[in-house]
Specification:
alpha/beta; about 550 residues; four-stranded mixed sheet; 25 helices
Length: about 550
């Protein structure tokens, strides 16, 4: 006897075997028990969620001679005929290959004949959105007023392509994506029936890869079992069969990217390709890995936000401490764009390599999150300089520049003494510098007239005292209303505290007012230039 695929072998024969669609099953069973059966149904949802299976079970239930609680008995003559596909009462039509007006006219002619056995003739039209406009028009009248013994069940994955005139004539049922836990439980149940040993971790990965589709899950499971028949199905074997990558590799790749190590990142990609990993799956899994990191870092209950083991959750929490939220958002955006591009290119590897270079080199982009990433890298360099500062030593031959750690001479003798300069203003506190760097983002969290005024305002500080106080200097005289209102000041203080976790005093004023404070504009690059002795170019949008 030929082998039958798992998803065909274990197709539901009753409503009780349908998993993950309880809201639909309960409604249909109640209709059958109460004899309130409709004449037209529309089953819509993503692939593999049970639309056709539920339609066939419903067709058996309405024709069953001895229904049990609204579900077919499975033993009567009608149930056996429908299950075997020999019943003349259930007509299944593929609209993808029978989408013309003539095909629908045949249906209209057939519905005039009553069923020879059973109570109902059930027409199941799969992928109904593929019907032509003329075919839909030909179906309208029959769908609206069919004979009492005819039931139409339309199934589609693209409900937005169905004409409104068809939708209004049907009872619509939306099939949900099946949860990971439901998929796991069903697969474990089938593996116990088939007497196949499988690791829970392996089933979890297959369930996630199925993306809410039971048919996809069983197909992937079937493929993995065939890899080593008769042996335990382990997590590593599942990764090997599906061309997937272990999460440990993603952690290493993330570290390479954070270190801006282009060579190391591409070398890791090369290792994955040599091992036969599918490059599109690699990008998708890495995106999900970063998504889990983002949820772990931002969620109050990480264990509920991500569906991973306790050990993996602990690893994600440790890694998330070393990466900023804005950085993760940029990585996810770049990889999502890359996934879309991979669908239409033949140079997949080159495209992924360019994506890795873009992740490692934020200066290649001019977006806001790329700018924040560049600031993060500069801050790390500044911290290294502060922990190992250069020492300026003067000898008999003049001034020479030495490295404090190695003692190596890095500069030449100074020929002339630098002219004496006026004492520069004190640098703004780091809190104010960060607010200045993200001023546009901060203003974007306000609205109304206040947002309009803040867009032209200049954040300043007291260059003499260097105190941690933010002065917002408005250029528009109409902003006098906000200068005189304490609630506007408190609003900005609360907004800054919520975003940065720091308490900063805010004072609002109009430009040109006679003030005693020596206010200076907050320069983000002033402190960097002072530390690294070079000009820093700041790109502005």
């Amino acid at each position: 006897m030929s082998y039958t695929a798992l998803y065909r072998k274990f197709r539901p024969d009753s409503f009780e075997e349908v998993k993950g669609q309880e809201h639909i099953v309960t409604t249909l069973k109640n209709q059958i028990k109460a004899q309130r059966i409709g004449h037209a149904y529309l089953f819509c949802g993503t692939r593999g969620t049970g639309k056709t299976s539920v339609a066939k079970v419903f067709a058996k239930a309405v024709n069953c001679e001895h229904p049990i609680d609204g579900s077919p008995c499975g033993t009567c003559a009608m149930c056996r005929e429908i299950a075997a596909g020999t019943s003349m009462n259930v007509i299944e039509i593929d609209a993808a290959s029978n989408n013309g007006v003539d095909n629908i006219r045949e249906i209209r002619e057939e519905v005039t004949y009553r069923p020879t056995r059973g109570r109902y003739k059930v027409y199941i039209i799969d992928e109904v959105h593929m019907l032509s406009t003329g075919a839909f028009n030909a179906l309208l009248k029959t769908l609206e007023e069919p004979p009492s013994y005819v039931i139409f069940i339309l199934a589609t994955t693209e409900v937005h392509k169905i004409p409104v005139t068809i939708l209004s004539r049907c009872q619509r049922y939306d099939f949900k994506r099946i949860t990971v836990e439901t998929l796991m439980n069903r697969m474990q149940e089938l593996m116990d029936h088939e007497q196949v040993q499988v690791e829970e971790k392996a089933l979890r990965y297959i369930a996630k890869a199925a993306d809410g589709a039971m048919r996809d899950a069983l197909s992937l499971l079937d493929q993995c079992i065939a890899f080593h028949p008769g042996e335990v199905l382990t997590y590593d074997r599942v990764l090997e069969v599906l061309g997937a990558v272990d999460t440990e590799v993603f952690g290493k790749l993330l570290q390479k990217i954070l270190q801006q190590d282009v060579t190391g990142s591409i070398a890791l990609l090369e290792d994955m390709i040599i091992l036969g990993k599918e490059i599109g799956q690699f990008v998708t899994d890495f995106t999900w890995y970063l998504r889990n990191l983002l949820l772990v870092k931002t969620s109050d209950e990480p264990s509920e936000a991500v569906d991973v083991s306790t050990e993996q959750l602990r690893e994600l929490q440790q890694i998330s401490e070393n990466v900023e939220v804005d950085t993760l958002l940029r990585y996810i955006r770049v990889l999502s764009e890359l996934s879309n591009q991979l669908r239409y290119t033949t140079q997949r590897r080159v495209l992924v390599e360019i994506g890795l270079v873009k992740l490692c080199r934020p200066q290649m982009e001019v977006s806001q999150d790329a700018l924040l990433e560049r600031i993060r890298v500069l801050e790390e360099k500044l911290e290294k300089w502060e922990s190992n500062p250069p020492v300026l030593m003067t000898g008999q031959t003049g001034a020479a520049f030495y490295n404090g750690a190695s003692g190596n001479k890095e500069g030449a003798n100074l020929q002339k003494a630098a002219p004496k300069k006026e004492k520069p203003p004190m640098a703004a506190p780091e809190d104010l510098q960060r607010i200045r760097a993200e001023w546009k983002t901060l203003v974007g969290q306000t609205d109304g007239m206040l947002k309009t005024m803040l867009n032209t305002a200049v954040p300043k500080y007291n260059g003499v005292t260097g105190e941690n106080k933010l002065y917002i200097e408005f250029a528009n005289p109409l902003a006098q209303n906000y200068v005189d209102r304490p609630d506007a000041k408190h609003f900005m203080e609360e907004l800054i505290a919520a975003r940065y976790g720091k308490s900063v005093e805010v004072e609002m004023r109009l430009a040109g007012q006679d003030q005693n404070q020596a206010l200076s504009e907050i320069s983000v690059d002033e402190q960097i230039r002072e530390k690294i002795h070079m000009d820093v170019i700041v790109e502005e949008e």
